[in-house]
Amino acid sequence: MNPKAEHFFENAKRWNEEFNLLREIIIENQSLVEDYKWMHPCYTFEGKNIVLIHGFKDYCALLFHKGALLKDTDQLLIQQTENVQSGRQLRFTQVEQIAHLRETIQRYIQEAIALEKSGAKVTMRQVEDYPIPEEFTKALNEDQALKDAFLSLTPGRQKGYLFYFNQAKQPKTRHSRIEKYYEHILDGKGIDD
């Protein structure tokens, strides 16, 4: 057991009983290794993330990293937001729900491991799938250095900027976001670098 994961389970105040039952169900599958990533217990198969336990104010959950590929025959998986492309959650609000779904949870875990063994990949959106806001199009057309720098960014960094710029509802806000990250883009950095 990973000592950090052990610490997580020992110190969880909210969802403690639920977390421990989820852990018990997961580690029944002896092919998974318990790790600790993103401040949560994460279970891997041959170094690849399969499922993660996490808690929120209103629910605790199992996050399947490639949940979008699971068959979800019981229609239980939830996409956290429309922007989440790969992960899907099984959500719980009480330990009895987990106990009742124990066999289903095990089945979903087995399917997730089989998907990982098969090498299946989630098809992620491409840069071209993100609209370029009018304000950013104008900035790119007026500033060749900005355009060159943006086009030389990795696809993930480009998507990060386009997503962030598009989130703004007002043109004024989009414009200020573009100005704020102008030097960042010129320096070849992503939005979170």
CATH class of the largest domain: Alpha Beta
Strand content: 15-25%
Radius of gyration: 21 Å
Order of helices and strands: HHEEEEEHHHHHHH
Distance between the termini: 32 Å
Count of discrete domains: 2
- The share of residues in helices is 40-55%
> How many DSSP E strands?
5
Overview of the molecule:
The chain has 193 residues and is of the alpha+beta class. It folds into 2 domains: 3-118, Aspartate Aminotransferase, domain 1, CATH 3.90.1150; 127-186, no CATH class. 47% of the residues lie in helices and 15% in strands. The chain has 9 helices and 5 strands, in the order H-H-E-E-E-E-E-H-H-H-H-H-H-H. It has helices at 3-11, 16-27, 95-100, 102-118, 134-142, 144-152, 155-167, 171-180, 182-186, and strands at 33-37, 40-45, 48-55, 60-64, 88-92. Helix 5 crosses helix 6. The two termini are 32 Å apart. The model has no long low-confidence stretch (mean pLDDT 92).
Would you summarize the structure shown here?
The chain is 47% helix and 15% strand. The chain contains nine helices and five strands. The chain is elongated, with a radius of gyration of 21 Å.
Topology:
Elements: H1 3-11, H2 16-27, E1 33-37, E2 40-45, E3 48-55, E4 60-64, E5 88-92, H3 95-100, H4 102-118, H5 134-142, H6 144-152, H7 155-167, H8 171-180, H9 182-186
Antiparallel strand pairs: 1-2, 2-3, 3-4, 4-5
